[in-house]
Amino acid sequence: MDALTITRPDDWHLHLRDGAAMADVLPYTARQFARAIVMPNLKPPVTTTAAAQAYRERIVAALPAGLRFAPLMTLYLTDNTPAEEIRRAKASGIVHGVKLYPAGATTHSDSGVTSLARCSAALAEMEKVDLPLLIHGEVTHRHVDVFDRERFFIDEQLIPLRRDFPALRVVFEHITTREAADYVVAAAGRIGATITAHHLLYNRTRLFADAEGRTGMRPHYYCLPVLKRETHRQALLAAATGGNPRFFLGTDSAPHPKGEKESACGCAGCFTAASALEMYAMAFEEAGALDRFEGFASHHGPDFYGLPRNAAQVTLRREQWHLPAEIKFGSASLVPLAAGEPLPWKLVA
Ligand code: NCD
Ligand code: ZN
After folding, report:
1. How do residues 113-126 score in pLDDT, each as one tens digit?
2. Suppose 204 and one of 3, 227, 250, 268 were both cysteines; which one would form an S-S bond, judging by CB atoms 3.0 to 4.6 Å apart?
3. Of all atoms in ligand 1, which is nearest to the CA of residue 268?
4. Atom of ligand 1 at shortest distance to CA of 108?
5. Cα(133)–Cα(246) distance, rounded to whole angstroms?
6. Would the CB of 268 count as within 6 Å of ligand 1?
């Protein structure tokens, strides 16, 4: 197969940032995707419908002419989110989910939730008005190994949460483990999961070696939840390519200035917006499942969110290309993930 035409996909998990940096990365996403669920972890976080509305307007204003793209906004859940904010969010029609960051779990999560018990009013209201909860599923206890934090989250937090709010629609975001994939397959009720391209393509060895096996720290491959061992990658690949409508595309493209990644304390987040569909296509091809790519990329997400599927189409062609080594990012630059690696598929229209 040398060309692949599919319904225009959406990105169900994206970090766009703000200001000039946002304006620099937005066109990459808008070229690839019709819509994206935009994460609210700005500084300060987007905790109100009014702030989400204003952020949405900044994104729309930054869109280059000729690109059609709809940002789907989210709120950042805190210990103090009142039920009435959830009602406002739902009524606005522009907020499509509420994001749970356990406090301290990842980049810009300092205002996150310290205990789910503190959020019961908001969660009950989300269940009632049917506004999805989008979960960064990692425990934050320092004694838990960073490679085990997602697995522990399922038993400690996710299962009790879903027992307490059985009708709540939940997206288990950017899953990285076999345990998470198995949980999503087996769980009763309304649960979906996003999977990134990088967790489908790479295992944790890539943090410490390049594609040819040359050793050395690779800060651009560091994200949270961190890449896991190969058995987990295989389980994620099976989940994404297996046709189950609970699994859908979410890039978790998370741009950072080059200097903050290439640092003694490099921050978590991989920028994939410029090559997302191409990277996913590589993974689906590896699994011999290009025929299932459209479901994962373009159908399962809108179906889960209760939104119409896109009418337009895009085409990927078999044509090797390389990403630029750096991309302008506000007053700095960023290094895209997979820069330097040959990409065998190219988005052409
Ligand atoms: C994200 C970011 O940089 O905002 N980083 C990441 O590694 N994925 C935050 C997140 O989604 O965890
Ligand atoms: Zn994210």
Report:
1. 999 999 999 999 99
2. 227
3. 7
4. 4
5. 15
6. yes
Q: How far apart are CA 344 and CA 172, in angstroms?
A: 30
* Tens digits of residue pLDDT in 8-43: 999 999 999 999 999 999 999 999 999 999 999 999
| Catalytic center residues | 252
**Ligand 1: does its nearest atom lie under 6 Å from the Cβ of 226?**
no
DSSP letters spanning 191-248: EEEEE-HHHHH--GGGGSB-TT--BS--GGG--SSPP--HHHHHHHHHHHHS--TTEE
E-strand ranges in 156-203 read 170-172, 191-195
Quote the tokens at residue 333: 């630059």
For residue 149, which phi and psi values (nearest 5 degrees)? Answer: -70, -30
Q: How many CB atoms lie within 10 A of CB 244?
A: 19
Of the candidates 274, 270, 278, the residue with the CA atom closest to the CA atom of residue 297: 278
Question: Of the bound ligands, which one is closest to the alpha carbon of residue 38?
Answer: 2
Compute, in angstroms, the gap from residue 183 CA to the centroid of ligand 1. Answer: 22
Q: What are the pLDDT digits (tens) for 264-286?
A: 999 999 999 999 999 999 999 99
